[in-house]
Amino acid sequence: MSLTSTVSGDTRIIAVNVERIDAAMAIQFKEDMRSETEAGPERVVLDLSQVKFIDSSGLGAIVAAMKQMGGERRLELAGLTPVVDKVFRLTRMDTVFNLFATLDEALTARQK
C-alpha cells in the first residue's frame, strides 16, 4: 500500500496513492495506517483524491483505522471521488466521518 504522510500545523495528512482500496489490500492498509497514526496530531485527514474505487473491505479498513486511533483523535476524509463519495453516503458513513470535497477545504475547515 502506498501512503505518504506529512504534518501541517496540528494536522497529519495521509495521502492514499493507489486507485483502489479493496479486499486485496485492506489488511495492508490497516497496518500502514496504524504505523502512520501511532503518534502525532489529534487530527488526521485522509486524502482519498487518487482513490477511484472502494469496496466494503476498504470501507471497513478505514473504519478500523479510525477506531485504532482512539476516541480522542479524529480521522477526517478529503478529496473523495464521486464513486467513493457515493459509497460513503449510501452506507451512511458520512454521519461517522467529516467529509471534505478537497484537501484544501479540510485544512481550512474550522476544527471542532
Automatic annotation (TrEMBL):
Residues 21-110 form the STAS domain. InterPro entries: Anti-sigma_ant, STAS_dom, STAS_dom_sf. It holds the Pfam family STAS. Belongs to the anti-sigma-factor antagonist family. PANTHER family: ANTI-SIGMA FACTOR ANTAGONIST TM_1081-RELATED, ANTI-SIGMA FACTOR ANTAGONIST TM_1081-RELATED-RELATED. This is Anti-sigma factor antagonist. It comes from Ruegeria aquimaris.
